[in-house]
């Protein structure tokens, strides 16, 4: 009897280990952070790089698009790569899982690498706050002298 109870509690621990995602708002994003889960709407998207030949089997195609995504707190530039580019349709609502902040020329960019996921979801019922663009804030790396 004790072993049945012990195996049940182990199963409960295994289920509890997969925690529910904590959703972050765009305005809470900071440089050098990662592991963010956000629900955003795509405002616009433009392809900035498309290279590689489909004719050659050993050469992978590389597609990169910069998309402005946001929620009710602000907007940020999302760097979409390869398969993610096709999901960046204006008006689409996406869930970005395990997103990270990359710095590009002193400004923040949101990205999802191979450890994360971009999912299309039901249309969200919020209005995007377009006048708070976090990618327009310029950061500078300041080194603090040690004595």
UniProtKB/TrEMBL annotation:
Lineage top rank: taxon: Eukaryota
Single-stranded DNA binding protein Ssb-like OB fold domain residues: 29-120
Organism: Iris pallida
Pfam families found in the cross-reference section: OB_Ssb-like
InterPro entries for this protein: NA-bd_OB-fold (IPR012340), OB_Ssb-like (IPR048970)
Protein known as: Single-stranded DNA binding protein Ssb-like OB fold domain-containing protein
